[in-house]
TrEMBL record:
Residues 2-59 form the HTH lysR-type domain. Pfam families: HTH_1 (PF00126), LysR_substrate (PF03466). InterPro entries: LysR_HTH_N, LysR_subst-bd, WH-like_DNA-bd_sf, WH_DNA-bd_sf. Belongs to the LysR transcriptional regulatory family. This is LysR family transcriptional regulator. Keywords: DNA-binding, Transcription, Transcription regulation. CDD domains: PBP2_LTTR_substrate.
């Protein structure tokens, strides 16, 4: 069982993305940090970070470990700290994400933290725009639908979105089941499509993954909110592809039906992105670890 000192060092490396920055925060030398990390990796039995000249990037095992122990280690550190530092949940964390996942999953999950005194400022938008705000320091954390690749950012997988093709029941009855099995693109080509954006990114990805072709369907409506897309489908305007967590209530109510049953449902991973080397923020740490634990209870989206 790793001792508290090793876990403290691990968390500082994880949060800063740098051995030298972790050493500075801990008030020790970089060789000491390197040695403690080596001891922890030996106990764990596998590397926790991928090293490069520009810092370190956490492995999936590191992200899982940080999610599991982060809040507990912070609470122990606070209990042992004799200073008059303010409680970790005093402060503001600026969080960005897509409107749908923020409204239906992230913000409700954060309500226990706000009751404990944390202030959350939420910004809704597209992943690329939000990641730019994160790099510039105007956000502290982004729930990103695309994997961040900028060197200034650290990212850990949060949860997978599962996509389903949905249609209103009356429209589904117009599709020949045998033709759908034999040639799904042609079987569905006559049905208008409802998209999230003009390029139909979610729909095109589903068609390419499942059918090997781009959708030839006419476009009936473009609306930049997936909940509105679902409402349009339920009203009979056409078909669309949606994350399952958005479609599930309408599927359960019979307002829409799943038109296609793939052997393996198409997925998209959501990431928690933070800024590499950002100043220590206990409130951000608590929020991030809380979200990772909450996502474990969601199973998938």
């Amino acid at each position: 069982m790793p001792n508290l000192d090793l876990l403290l060092t691990f968390l500082e490396i994880y949060r800063t993305g740098s051995l030298s920055a972790a050493a500075q925060r801990l008030g020790v030398t970089q060789p000491a940090v390197t040695g403690q990390l080596a001891r922890l990796e030996q106990q764990i039995g596998e590397p926790l970070f991928v090293r490069s000249p520009k810092g370190v990037a956490p492995t999936q095992r590191a992200a899982a470990l940080a999610s599991r122990v982060g809040l507990h280690v912070d609470e122990l550190r606070g209990a042992l700290d004799s200073t008059d530092a303010p409680p970790a949940l005093r402060g503001t964390v600026r969080v960005g994400g897509a409107a749908e996942v923020m409204s239906l999953r992230v913000l409700p999950a954060l309500s226990p933290l706000t009751r404990r005194g944390l202030c959350v400022h939420a910004t809704l938008g597209l992943a690329d725009d939000l990641l730019s705000l994160l790099v510039s320091g105007r956000l502290d954390l982004v729930v990103s639908a695309v994997r961040p690749t900028r060197e200034a950012l650290l990212a850990a997988p949060l949860i997978d979105e599962v996509f389903v093709l949905v249609a209103p029941p009356a429209v589904a009855h117009t599709v020949d089941p045998e033709r759908l099995k034999a040639d799904p693109v042609e079987a569905l080509a006559h049905i208008p499509m409802i998209g999230y954006a003009e390029e139909l990114p979610i729909v095109r990805r589903y068609w390419r993954t499942e059918f090997g072709r781009r959708p030839p369907n006419p476009v009936a409506m473009i609306v930049s909110d997936l909940r509105a897309v679902l409402a349009a489908v339920a009203a009979g305007a056409g078909i669309s592809v949606l994350p399952r967590y958005i479609a599930d209530p309408a599927l359960a109510a019979g307002d829409v039906v799943q038109l296609h049953q793939p052997e393996i449902a198409p997925l998209n991973t959501l990431y928690l992105a933070t800024r590499r080397g950002a100043p220590a923020n206990p409130a951000l740490t608590v929020l991030r670890d809380h979200l990772q634990r909450a996502a474990g209870e969601w199973n998938d989206l």
